[in-house]
Structure formats: C-alpha cells, structure tokens
C-alpha cells in the first residue's frame, strides 16, 4: 500500500503559528512608535508566505523532484 504524504501541512501549521505569534506581539504588546513595529511585520509576512507555500504544496500534490525517502532526485 503506498504511503500517502500530506506535503505542505507542516508549512501551513508552522507558518500559521509563527504568524500568530508575530501578530500577537504587534497587537497585544504596547509600542512607542510605528518604527518599533516594522521588523515584526516582516516576520509576520514571511510566516504568511511560508503558510501560502504550504497551501500550494497541498493543492499541487507531489512533485516529480520529491524523492520517496526524503530530499530530491534532481541530481541523479
């Protein structure tokens, strides 16, 4: 029986958790100016991009570069 992988679920969950962490710091912790918040927005945006990449991997399915035992078979 073939092993069904859910490629991207870790990226979706991890990206959502990190984005929630950064967004909670932005909205919950009081800041003096908008310059204090700018680096936190970058972290939130990167986490959301990671989550979107995971959603793409879930929708697209396995790639022909995905090796069965991890890594890629691009060099072989």
- Indicate the structural class: mainly alpha
Percent range for β-strand residues: under 5%
Major sheet characteristics = none
- Average pLDDT figure: 81
What's the Cα radius of gyration? Answer: 17 Å
Oligomer: single chain
- Our count of helices gives 2
Poorly predicted ranges: none
The helical percent reads: 55-70%
Order of helices and strands: HH
Number of DSSP E strands? 0
Distance between the termini: 26 Å
Give the overall form: elongated
Can you walk me through this structure?
This protein has helices at residues 9-28, 34-60. The protein is mainly α and 76 residues long. It has a domain at 9-60. The chain is elongated, with a radius of gyration of 17 Å. The two termini are 26 Å apart. Keywords: Membrane, Transmembrane, Transmembrane helix. The chain crosses the membrane at residues 7-28, 40-60.
What characteristics describe this protein?
single chain, 76 residues, mainly alpha, elongated, membrane
């Amino acid at each position: 029986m073939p092993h069904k992988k859910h490629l991207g679920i870790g990226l979706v969950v991890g990206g959502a958790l990190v984005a929630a962490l950064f967004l909670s710091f932005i909205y919950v912790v009081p800041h003096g100016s908008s310059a204090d918040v700018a680096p936190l927005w970058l972290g939130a945006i990167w986490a959301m991009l990671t989550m979107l990449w995971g959603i793409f991997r879930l929708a697209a399915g396995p790639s022909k570069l995905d090796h069965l035992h991890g890594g890629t078979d691009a060099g072989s």
